[in-house]
């Protein structure tokens, strides 16, 4: 899996591509932990390039969501592929996470001027 990070004003963006599984989730957990440790107010995760995700990916996002919530930060997931969205739906987490259909809409929800 590849992770590209960028800043758009006060929004920290992570663009993921590849497979998010047991082997790659520790790298993502590390990036998200860095952001939540700095109390990044707005985190946007672009999942458009993720073809596969297993339960370790879900666990990584749940952990980051809980950490961000503790300091009133926001975590928005965007551009989920059908497969990845299915994983969230099966786990009944699609109603817990803020999920945007596109990266632009996710940024807009976080207050970016588009």
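Q: What amino acid sequence fits the structure above?
A:
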């Amino acid at each position: 899996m590849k992770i590209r990070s960028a800043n758009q004003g006060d929004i920290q963006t992570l663009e993921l591509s590849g497979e998010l599984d047991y082997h790659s989730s520790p790298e993502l957990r590390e990036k998200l932990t860095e952001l939540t440790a700095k109390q990044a107010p707005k985190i946007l995760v672009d999942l458009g390039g993720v073809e596969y995700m297993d339960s370790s990916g879900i666990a990584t996002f749940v952990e980051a969501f809980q950490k961000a919530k503790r300091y009133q930060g926001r975590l928005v997931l965007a551009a989920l592929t059908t497969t990845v969205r299915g994983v969230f739906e099966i786990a009944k987490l699609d109603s817990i996470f803020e999920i945007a259909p596109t990266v632009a809409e996710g940024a807009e929800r976080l207050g970016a001027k588009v």
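Q: And what stands out in the fold?
A: Residues 86 and 107 are 22 Å apart (CA to CA).
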